[in-house]
Amino acid sequence: MKTHPVTVGAFEAKTKLGELLERVGQGAAFTITKHDRPVARLVGFEADRTAQRAAATAELRALRARYTLGGLDARALRAEGRA
Prior knowledge:
elongated; 55% helix; 4 helices; YefM-like fold; alpha+beta
């Protein structure tokens, strides 16, 4: 069950932590705010790992776009290196 993050105040998060953790275990996500400013995210462990993987993939794609072979053929270079 994937849902969009729900905003919860810090006081409410403190008083209902058990309930929030139960819901996180079911796939929910929460943004915890203090004085109407986001200060933390409460997400399940697997959801956090998925987000980290997505960020790493995006970073690798951005790096790949910055560096090119300048018109050289990667297969030809590999074959030349094996010769």
